[in-house]
């Protein structure tokens, strides 16, 4: 059994490929740029396969002999459909790094197809979905009759070109919440609150984060809101952006911003990744008033992603790959996030056992 990493020469893809080699894995590296692929393959002494997502036949051929494909080339709203189609046609397990709500929704609709193909479809196997989904399942499981779930993210560090391009792709999209078991679109920066992240309280504003979708699979909680810690100025800008959403979706503007992003550096340096950290907070409230609140402290976001993605590859290669659409917590359990080196969980509040 072997793994394939598509988009391996991108910023995050390289971190994952190197971490995989450190774990003793020998993945096949794939992507559309033959020169960059050959350079990385030579550096890591790994096999390569050059293929474009726009060539379905060659993409299926590239998956020959591959049991699991880890898709690292975003924006996933554009790149996931051809890769997932190839994986379903070849019975290859599918993992990706998306955080895009629309991708989770679309892939969830392919759950029956995945079951019929005998393969697993598991999007969001990095930060922020691994910690948010796993912690959501944990607090929900510890709260009798949980009917409200809130999740909040805090991350120290800078972002990569790929992440910025994905954010640009989502400009003007608005937010998403779960209410009475159904997903609802809401304006940007729809609601805000304060959250205690352990060192201090921070203002957070609602975002269309992946756990709003995955919680519908990994928990039975009908009402879910996700937040991110940002300065007050950013919160105000998010709320103001609802008045110019039409402009933000204008394709020429997005293309211009992406070109500007490409002039910057690929992503955080090794020193910056070493200094960064992440905290995920989750709180579930039951219909009778019981509350479970917990925090998950972890390494910097890209470091977390590389470690969680390789851990997932290892588990799939060892045979843990339930067929159908899965979330990190349904595939590997609520404690999966704790398998990421440098991660710890702290229960802040829990229902009385009296």
Automatic annotation (TrEMBL):
**Pfam family for this entry, one:** Sacchrp_dh_NADP
Q: Name one GO molecular function term.
A: saccharopine dehydrogenase (NAD+, L-lysine-forming) activity
On the tree of life, the source organism's domain of life is Bacteria
EC annotation? 1.5.1.7
Q: Which Gene3D superfamilies match?
A: NAD(P)-binding Rossmann-like Domain
Domain Saccharopine dehydrogenase NADP binding stretches: 4-99
What keywords appear on the UniProt entry?
Oxidoreductase
The identity of this protein, by name, is: Saccharopine dehydrogenase (NAD+, L-lysine-forming)
């Amino acid at each position: 059994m072997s793994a394939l990493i598509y988009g391996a020469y991108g910023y995050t893809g390289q971190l994952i490929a190197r971490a995989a080699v450190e774990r003793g894995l020998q993945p096949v590296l794939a992507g559309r740029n033959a020169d960059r692929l050959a350079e990385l393959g030579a550096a890591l002494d790994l096999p390569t396969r050059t293929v474009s997502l726009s060539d379905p036949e060659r993409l299926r051929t590239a998956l020959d002999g591959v049991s699991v494909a880890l898709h690292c080339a975003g924006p996933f709203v554009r790149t996931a459909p051809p890769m997932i189609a190839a994986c379903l046609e070849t019975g290859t397990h599918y993992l990706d790094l998306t955080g895009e709500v629309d991708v989770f929704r679309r892939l969830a609709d392919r759950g029956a197809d995945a079951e019929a193909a005998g393969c697993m479809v598991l999007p969001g196997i990095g930060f922020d979905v691994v910690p948010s989904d796993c912690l959501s399942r944990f607090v929900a499981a510890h709260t009798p009759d949980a009917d409200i779930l809130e999740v909040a993210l805090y991350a120290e560090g800078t972002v990569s070109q790929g992440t910025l391009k994905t954010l640009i792709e989502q400009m003007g999209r608005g937010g998403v919440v779960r209410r009475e078991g159904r997903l609802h679109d809401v304006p940007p920066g729809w609601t805000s609150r304060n959250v205690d992240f352990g060192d201090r309280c921070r203002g957070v504003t609602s975002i269309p984060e992946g756990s709003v979708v995955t919680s519908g699979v990994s928990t039975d909680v009908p009402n879910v809101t996700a937040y991110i810690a940002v300065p007050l100025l950013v919160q105000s800008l998010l709320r103001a952006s609802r008045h110019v959403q039409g402009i933000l979706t204008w394709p020429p503007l997005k293309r211009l911003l992406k070109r500007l992003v490409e002039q910057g550096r690929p992503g955080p340096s090794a020193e910056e990744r070493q200094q960064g950290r992440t905290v995920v907070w989750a709180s579930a409230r039951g219909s009778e008033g019981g509350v479970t609140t917990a925090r998950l402290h972890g390494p910097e976001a890209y470091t977390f992603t590389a470690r969680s993605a390789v851990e997932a590859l290892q588990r799939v290669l060892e045979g843990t790959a339930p067929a159908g659409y899965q979330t990190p917590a349904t595939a590997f359990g609520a404690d999966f996030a704790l398998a990421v080196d440098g991660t710890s969980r702290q229960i802040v509040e829990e229902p009385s056992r009296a």
